[in-house]
Design goal:
This protein is mainly alpha-helical and 437 residues long. It contains 16 helices and 4 strands. The strands form 2 sheets. The protein has a two-stranded antiparallel sheet with strand order 1-2. Strands 3-4 form a two-stranded antiparallel sheet.
Length: 437
């Protein structure tokens, strides 16, 4: 195997190996936890940190995530080199974005071995810092990478060449870029929703985790030596966490963490579909050269050129819808799913508080009066964080729906274009029949 073949092999093996390593590590830790009755904070689906806390899962967890970090460094390197070869020299902004994405993608990876080897029971702050470091920086990396992938796709669709049909030399290249972009947009949108629930929202609304007491640890059959010696924190508590009292919030965050991991695995498959080109000419020059060939070069496919503009309009509509659908989905989850599950039961504003807020005597004691002491107004001051988050999600839902509605204005409604395209196809078929006669 020469160096070129080795590089081609590594381009596929590194992202695929990283994805498989994550899945194998996660499944192995689950099996070890379930078979050894390891305490996972009382959750149905635990945090990965709980699954990799005790031996022997600790070794699997640390080794697996370290391997993933190494493979991701190679993956981001290959991806950056591809961007630098595919982007034209004058695309300065996107070349910078690609470089920032590469640096962020590489710098995020040390967070994985940190969170793996510094377990949550003995080094909770360092473990949490490693997790936040990885997920926050990785979010920046894949966001910028998706933007660059969109640019690479638009480079081909923007050329006046019928790239959609099979006879175009760049048709297959555009299809690969389209596939890469589609994978990245879908999995980034899903990842971002899970990331918001897991990190910024989850950490802000989750109450402080409580330690499992030594008595409760023994009552759960975890072993006296384990509870009183191995995991002892002080005279009454262990270093283990007890999330049973905050089950709803903690289980939501653990599920979101799992979703983050699975969507990152899905996103990494897009690196395999990159249109790596080992030829000397950069892709955009190959397209330009192909566009200078005589019209008969494309032969039987030339009739499709008339519909190129319609295809561009449909792609514009699709991109607008994908962007605003992603924004709406995030806002919807925050407003409805997360907001309603975390929000406590709303309280009524008392008549006295209504008057104290200078809302008016008639308004408080007559217009909005509910009973002797309360009004029909809600009082969310005791749950301001959750209520404000839900209200912000509601506004974002409305604005993203407004943005989505713009896509209807970009639909290719023109009937003349339909008839022109049909006429071109009919003329092409009639020419073919004449030649056959």
């Amino acid at each position: 195997m020469d160096s070129a073949q080795l590089i081609r092999f590594l381009r596929t093996a590194c992202p695929l190996g990283a994805s498989l390593s994550v899945l194998i590590t996660m499944v192995s830790c689950v099996i070890i936890v379930k078979s050894n009755n390891i305490w996972v904070s009382g959750l149905t689906w635990p945090f990965l940190s709980d699954m990799g806390r005790d031996y022997p899962a600790y070794y699997v967890f640390g080794t697996g995530l370290t391997l993933v970090a190494i493979l991701l460094v190679f993956t981001w390197t290959f991806n950056w080199r591809y961007h630098m070869s595919a982007l034209p020299e004058n695309a300065t902004v996107f070349r910078v974005l690609s470089s920032i994405s590469f640096v962020a993608g590489v710098l995020a990876n040390p967070g994985l071995p940190v969170l793996a080897f510094f377990d949550t029971s003995k080094h909770s702050k360092l473990h949490a810092a490693g997790a936040e470091w990885f997920f926050y920086i990785e979010t920046i990396a894949i966001l910028l990478n998706t933007i660059v992938s969109y640019k690479l796709y638009k480079m081909l669709t923007g050329l006046q060449v019928d790239l959609e049909n099979a006879c175009s030399t760049m048709g297959a290249k555009m299809q690969r870029r389209k596939r890469t972009l589609t994978i990245q947009v879908i999995f980034f949108a899903l990842f971002f929703v899970a990331f918001l629930i897991y990190m910024p929202i989850g950490t802000s609304v989750a109450p402080q985790s409580q330690r499992l007491s030594i008595d409760d640890c023994i009552d759960k059959g975890l072993g006296e030596t384990y509870c009183e010696v191995t995991m002892r924190l002080n005279s009454t508590s262990t270093t283990l966490y007890d999330d049973e009292k905050t089950y709803g919030t903690s289980q939501m965050r653990a599920a979101a963490q799992l979703a983050c991991i699975l969507t990152l695995v899905g996103y990494s498959t897009s690196f395999i579909t990159n249109d790596y080109d080992d030829s000397e000419d950069p892709p955009e020059l190959q397209v330009i050269h192909s566009s200078e060939k005589p019209t008969h070069w494309c032969g039987e496919c030339s009739h499709k050129i008339a519909s190129t503009q319609r295809a561009h309009k449909r792609k514009k509509t699709l991109m607008i819808q994908l962007i605003f659908l992603s924004c709406f989905l995030i806002a919807f989850v925050i407003y409805i799913s997360v907001g309603m599950s975390l929000a406590p039961e709303s309280k009524r504003l008392s008549v006295a508080d209504c008057l104290r807020e200078n809302l008016g005597t008639t308004y408080c004691t007559d217009t909005k009066r509910l009973d002797d002491t309360g009004t029909t107004l809600d009082d969310d001051r005791d749950a301001v964080a959750v209520s404000q988050m839900s209200a912000g999600g509601q506004i974002a839902c409305i604005l993203s729906l407004v943005g989505y509605s713009i896509s209807f204005a970009t639909n290719d409604y023109a009937e003349e274009d339909n008839s022109s395209a049909r006429s071109a196809i009919e003329m092409h078929h009639s020419d073919e029949e004449s030649l056959l006669r």
